[in-house]
């Protein structure tokens, strides 16, 4: 049985172990996970592996959303929103992929923020259903 590694808490930074980094991790979320939909993005989520005791985030933004500058700006904004969200440490251990829809191109920062918080809120430990 794999041993759970300690999750280090270091302020607001988003550590490498808090991110999905391999294609297989993203594919697992897409193929086997549940989905939560919103007008600006879809959240794909699946319970994390036994060896992981904290949530991990991945972000995908396709060319349909815009050029490289637009895509990278949206990814930075989403990481910043997630990184600064005070309840992030209370999330259950899920692997999550935020898939951004083309409508997000025109969205303001506050709109992205409210949608991410709305999609993530049911995943807080002890709050029941995630579907």
Report the β-strand fraction as a percent range: 15-25%
Radius of gyration: 14 Å
- Overall geometry comes to globular
CATH A-level architecture? 2-Layer Sandwich
Mind telling me the CATH class?
Alpha Beta
Uncertain residue ranges: none
The largest pleated sheet is described as:
4 strands, mixed
SSE run: HEEEHEH
- What's the helical proportion of residues? 25-40%
Tally of DSSP β-strands:
4
**Secondary-structure content class:** alpha+beta
Number of distinct helices:
3
What is the strand and helix layout of this fold?
Elements: H1 23-32, E1 34-37, E2 41-47, E3 56-61, H2 68-84, E4 94-100, H3 109-120
Parallel strand pairs: 3-4
Antiparallel strand pairs: 1-2, 2-4
Helix pairs in contact: 2-3
Keywords:
131 residues, Ribosomal Protein S5, domain 2, alpha+beta, 4 strands
Could you describe the 3D structure shown?
This protein is of the alpha+beta class and 131 residues long. The chain has one domain (16-121): Ribosomal Protein S5, domain 2 (2-Layer Sandwich), CATH 3.30.230.10. Helices cover 30% and strands 18% of the residues. A four-stranded mixed sheet has the order 1-2-4-3, with helices on both faces. α2 (68-84) crosses α3. The longest helix is centred in the middle third of the chain and has 17 residues, at 68-84. The radius of gyration is 14 Å and the shape is globular. The two termini are 28 Å apart. The mean pLDDT is 88.
State the gist of this model.
This protein is α+β, with helices and mostly antiparallel strands and 131 residues long.
């Amino acid at each position: 049985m794999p041993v759970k590694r300690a999750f280090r808490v270091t302020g607001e930074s988003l550590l490498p172990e808090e991110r999905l980094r391999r294609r297989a991790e993203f594919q697992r979320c897409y193929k086997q996970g549940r989905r939560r939909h919103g007008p600006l993005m879809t959240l794909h989520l699946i319970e994390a592996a036994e060896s992981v005791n904290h949530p991990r985030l991945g972000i995908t933004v396709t060319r349909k959303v815009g050029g490289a500058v637009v895509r990278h700006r949206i990814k930075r904004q989403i990481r910043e929103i997630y990184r600064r969200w005070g309840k992030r440490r209370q999330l259950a251990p899920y692997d999550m992929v935020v898939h951004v829809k083309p409508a997000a191109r025109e969205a303001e920062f506050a709109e992205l923020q409210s949608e991410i918080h709305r999609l993530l809120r049911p995943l807080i430990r002890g709050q029941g259903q995630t579907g």
